[in-house]
Amino acid sequence: MPFHRFYVPQGLYSSGDKRSIAEAVTEVYVKVGLPRFYVVVNFIEVSEENFYVGGKSSTDFVRISIHHIARHLPSRVLFV
């Protein structure tokens, strides 16, 4: 079960943006045979005072963490 977490500045993406990203991520896995309900995408909004790069607070970031459980994707699969 793939689990994608997007750490983003507060307000970076609209609800529609998040839905579009989640749908695109899900399609990658559907193409290789996973059911849609296996794919989990979370958007975690982080305030400036809680995200530091090089010791300084930042709002210029997107951090993505992906965990795959029980599935290997062929190298030819690309995320769009």
UniProtKB/TrEMBL annotation:
Annotated SUPFAM superfamilies: Tautomerase/MIF (SSF55331)
Residues annotated as transmembrane: none
Domain of life: Eukaryota
Domain called Tautomerase cis-CaaD-like: residue spans: 1-75
Pfam family, one: Tautomerase_3
Gene3D superfamilies given in the database record: Macrophage Migration Inhibitory Factor (3.30.429.10)
UniProt protein name: Tautomerase cis-CaaD-like domain-containing protein
Source species: Guyanagaster necrorhizus
